[in-house]
Amino acid sequence: MIKKILLLLIYIHVLLIPVFSQTAVLDFRACDLQNRIVSLEGEWDFYWKKILPPGISLPEKTQLIRVPGAWNISGDYPPDGYATYHMTVLLPDVSFPLGIRTRFSLNQYRMYVNGIMLLENGSPGPDDTLNRNRDDLSVRQLPAGRELNILYQVSNYNDIHGGITDAFEIGSLQTLIRNKNRKVIFEAFLFGVLFITGMLYLSFYLTRKDDRASLYFGLFSIVLGFRTILYGEHLLLLFYPIMPVDLENILGHLTFYLSVPLFLRFITIEYPFKWSRFVFLPVYYISALFICLVLLTEHHFYIQFLVFYQTLALVISGIIFAVIIFYALKRNASAIVTLSGFLVLLFTAANDIFYAQGLIQTAHIVPVGLALFIISQAALLSWNIGRAFSNAEKLTCKLAETNSSFRRFVPEEFLEYMGKDTITEVQLGDHTQTDMTIMFCDIRDFTTLSEHLTPKENFLFLNSYLKRIGPVIRQFGGFIDKYVGDGIMALFPDSADSAVEAAIQIQEEIKVYNSHRGNFGYEPIRIGIGIHTGSLMLGTIGENERMDSTVISDSVNLCARIESLTKEYGMSIAISEASWDILQNRESIEERYIGQIYLKGKSAPVPIFEIFNTDSPETLTAKKRLKETFYKALTLYNNENFKEAEKVFEEILTDLPTDKTSQVYLFKSRENG
Fold first, then answer.
1. What is the rounded distance in angstroms from the CA atom of residue 39 to the CA atom of residue 36?
2. pLDDT tens-digit readout, 3-36
């Protein structure tokens, strides 16, 4: 019974406090402060032009003033001055420590709770010296007890607002510290996102100097990144704890005056409009003026003009908003994404401007808007990069196809010997000199053969023939320099052995090809191959609008003449002495020396060898058996003993009637004899 009476008296006492006490009271006894943070918003006792010390009886209050809110707005006092705030806070009985958290302020202040000074920033009072100190923004533990008597002394001679502009918060000490750490982590994350995004855009600009939009957005992101660590939890102080207040103020204003023109320039480049020049130029000049104002005057002076630039920023935001909407309505995908993020950023920026002016009682939420806007731009950047990669892949494939097509017309080996990486680097008149083995390959009696074919059949026949020859040449390290009608000119940079091996394999392929032709009733074809090694000049000839790669050399002409001998002397493969002398692998080659032949255009005879590996087995065996006899007859002929040479050649032809080389020499022996 006694316990119930005591509780009733306590309740009556509490109910009568607002009526009979002269102090403002906030009652949080019913609040769960372990899981909830409460704000000390409400009507506070306000004593203008008084710095009341703790431990004395409060004078009769003169006015209640709304907190949060600057006294020059809530109480219609001038911004410069000093005062004392008072509030009584009733708390529940808790077994855990409670804490109080305040926000950054340029005012000078002291906070006493139950007579104990918890916070101090400068020396509040009638002295109008500017605040050069900064209080640690850490959470402070409250004294134990169920009633808090808060006395807040404050003076302002530095800011455009005086008093308690951000409400204090009370809650579990652990919860307050955890929330503070979360905000620190978020702002650090936001700084990292902004800074990295800015550096990424700047790197794009360095690789693509014509993309000036990336330059301005990169600078804008970096400037905003530094702005995030100058406000909120003031992360810059973690790295530079002794930073002067004046310097922090200057940096904070500069980031604002730089971010507006940078972002505006980004928009005018990315989304150009007719009168953009008449918008961004005045903004440049005005921003430059405000920057000079910040650098050349004191904070308490230049901060008075902040509202004008904030108004300008809102107007510019409206213009940007209209431009982005215009492009979004034209179904510009980038504009639609930018518009979504900009709407959020615009809303949070407007909120912060109105909040800074004391027109609304919310909170600084522009970091959230920035985060969402940067996320939208990051998504846009990711999409653009993905699209660029996709286009690059398509372009790469197209270029690969184009280069592959060009290689069909201009051999890749030609580019290598010219010292060029791509066909685009080749210029008219480029040339180089080197030693190579040359091969000429020609179809016998092609004119007679083509007379019985239509033009279409001629092309089909040649392509069918050439597609068997080209792979063999490439297989042995050669490349086709040009096609001359039914003839082929190929070059072998590595060795003469490669050319000879390729020639033998080509003749074998022709045997297979003739077998297929026979199945369809077509006549077999025969080809002659000439090989010579010598110095030649690779280069381009023509004129600027039409040029071609070519090989110019006496060695080329000589090789063509050697190939023509194959028809006259009935050889499959003819090779010059210059090529024969440098062969490394002669063991597998069946050859015979056919003499020094006078070729058209040459004043001296040229030693020629026949390679007969691909002759029919009977002919191959006979030529090997008659090789010494042939050399005997050839020696007699060269010694002008034509009668004896005639007899020996007749002997050879008796054994091998199809040996056209012996037939030619027999005819010449009889003619000279």
1. 10
2. 444 334 434 443 333 333 446 899 999 999 988 8
Distance CA 131, CA 177 (A): 27
Q: How far apart are CA 256 and CA 58, in angstroms?
A: 43
Q: Is the peptide bond before 68 cis (omega within 30 degrees of 0)?
A: yes
What number of other Cβ atoms are within 10 A of residue 42's Cβ? 15
As a whole number of angstroms, the distance between CA 391 and CA 383 comes to 12
CA distance 582 to 647: 35
**For residue 44, what pLDDT is reported?**
93
Rounded Cα distance, 23 and 37, in Å = 23
- CA 391 – CA 388 distance, rounded (Å): 5
- Burial of residue 488, with CB atoms counted within 10 A of its CB: 0-12 exposed, 13-18 middle, 19 or more buried: buried
| β-strand partners of 543 | 546
Six-digit token string for 378: 């990051």
CA distances from 549 to 439, 534, 560 (A): 17, 19, 18
8 A C-beta contact, residue 158 and residue 115: no
State the sign of the Cα–Cα–Cα–Cα dihedral 321, 366, 31, 33. positive
Q: Which residue has the tokens 């090694």?
A: 533
326 vs 308: CA distance, rounded Å: 27
Reported as a pLDDT band with limits 50, 70 and 90, residue 587 is confident
Contact 411, 548 (CB under 8 A): no
pTM for the predicted model, two decimal places: 0.57
| 98, 139 contact by CB (below 8 A) | no
Whether 369 and 375 have beta carbons less than 8 Å apart is answered as no
- Angle at which helix 627-638 crosses helix 660-672, to 10 degrees, equals 30
Joined tokens for residue 288: 């430059």
Alpha helices for 410-550 (secondary structure H): 412-417, 446-450, 455-475, 496-519
CA distance 572 to 378: 70
**Cβ neighbours around 598 below 10 Å, total:** 11
Q: Using an 8 Å Cβ cutoff, are 131 and 245 in contact?
A: yes
